[in-house]
Structure formats: C-alpha cells, structure tokens
C-alpha cells in the first residue's frame, strides 16, 4: 500500500484529533477507505477522477449492501478526499458532488414501561456484578445515555447532589443528563458498598465508575453480554439492545408530553431531525392503542 497506507494512517489521526469521531466510527471509515484503496489497485488515489468513483459505486451496489451501508461507505470516502484536499494533496475533491443515497427511515424499536420493569426485575442483584448490571440498565432507561457514554463515565462526571451526570457524546459534545432519586440512591449504594466487592480500587476523580472484577473499565461488549444473559434468563423474546433503552426513554418522554426540543437536548442530538423520528413512534403508538381499544376501529 506504500503511500496509500500513510494516507490512511494520517486520515485516522485526522478523524480522531480534528473530527472527534468515536473509535467505532473511525474503524468503520478507515475500513471503508481501505477497501476503496484496494479496489483502485495500482492507481494513485491523488489522481482519481469522478468517473472512477462512479465505477466504484456501481461495484458496491452489486454486492447487495443495505442503503445504510452504502451511504456510510460514500460518506467515508468523501471524508477521506476532503481530508486530502484540506492537506493540499489534491487540487479538487473528485467525490464532493457524489450524492449519498436516501435511506429508508425505519421506526426505532422501543420497550413499554412494563417490559423495562420486567427486564430489570429479571436481573439477579444478589451478586455484586448483578447489582452493577441492574443499575447500568436502569441508568440507560432513565437517562437516555448511549452505551459508550455510560461505559466511559468517571467519578468526576457525577453531580449526584443535583441528580446530574455529565456525559460526552458524539464529537465529544458535552451535555447533562438527569436521573431520578430512586436511581441516584441505587447508584450511591453501588459506589459505597458494591463496587469494592467487585474489585477494591481507588475512587479518584478520573477512576472509571463501572468496573469489572480486575478493576478495569467495564467495556460496551460486557454490558451487551449482561443484557443478553438477562433476556435469556427471563425468556424475553423481543430483540433488545442497550440502544433500545435510549429509544424507549425518548419515546416515553414524548408520549407523556415532553417538548421535542427538551428531548433533543437530553439525547444530545445535534439536529432536531434526529429527534423527530420519535414523534412518529408516539403517533404510531397512539394509532395502535386507538385501533385496539375503539370499537369502530376494529370493524
């Protein structure tokens, strides 16, 4: 790959230091660009014409990728060439005007309040890890945090006197999420009594809040595994991921009359458009209830 490999390494640094992308997004973008660089083979990426990129679009469309995947691959390569242009390695961006295909909007999956309570009750809290897992899922439900935001929490992020937690979302954007008193008390109990039973470590400001039995930060995959084990133990058949708790949080707020802008702020969405999909979920929920309950709707 010679020069191509160097371009890719520099692009990775650019995404991390200047764009503040998450590690997951950086991996995906770099993988997309790497695939493209392999496809152009011996061609110099600095000399690519728009027509060549059109050929690549045709190529990836033959592989039956979803529209979401194709849109991300296009976005990755556009970002790569934007980086090359910014570094003055090319005189113009050959892919800047390539449109990203419109994606089919799908309504997010969410849980009812009873379903959430059923899941939380299914977690065995008799063990330290079980108690930790229970408070983690409860936090996802009551705060709308992303799993990556939760796993990266340190003690310095907590302001429990005000029922507040400071999180850093996509692009390192800072926001405050709120938690109710019941969850706060459960979190305090975890900090004061349970965490030392998992692993006795220092609790300074930069220490991770949620840890494993070796005292290291609990990773996203471990949280997903804990949720999966819980769902299997209670024979819960609905597909649930940690992100479904975030969807459920937003949906319930809107169903109970919360202002869309407030929900946007609590979720950390940069655009109101990302939040508006939950209004569609709420409307669909109203329709479902109406059709199930109204006698004329059943006819």
Structural domain tally: 2
Query: What overall form do the CA principal axes indicate?
Result: globular
The helix-strand sequence is HHHHHHHEEEHHHHH
Helix content range of the residues, please? 55-70%
Specify Rg, calculated over alpha carbons.
23 Å
Global structural class: mainly alpha
Q: Fill in the CATH topology of the largest domain.
A: hpI Integrase, Chain A
Give the SSE map:
Blueprint: H1 2-17, H2 23-39, H3 50-61, H4 67-86, H5 113-121, H6 128-143, H7 147-151, E1 158-159, E2 164-168, E3 174-178, H8 181-198, H9 220-233, H10 242-255, H11 260-267, H12 272-293
Antiparallel strand pairs: 1-2, 2-3
Helix pairs in contact: 1-2, 2-4, 6-8, 6-10, 10-12, 11-12
Keywords:
mainly alpha; hpI Integrase, Chain A; DNA polymerase, domain 1; three-stranded antiparallel β-sheet; single chain; 299 residues
Mind explaining what this structure looks like?
With 299 residues, this protein is mostly helical. The chain has two domains: 2-86, DNA polymerase, domain 1; 113-239, Intergrase catalytic core (hpI Integrase, Chain A). The protein has twelve helices and three strands. It has helices at 2-17, 23-39, 50-61, 67-86, 113-121, 128-143, 147-151, 181-198, 220-233, 242-255, 260-267, 272-293, and strands spanning 158-159, 164-168, 174-178. A three-stranded antiparallel beta sheet has the order 1-2-3. Helix 6 (128-143) runs antiparallel to helix 8, helix 6 (128-143) crosses helix 10 (242-255) and helix 10 (242-255) packs across helix 12 (272-293). It is globular, with a radius of gyration of 23 Å. It starts with a helix and ends in a 6-residue tail after the last helix.
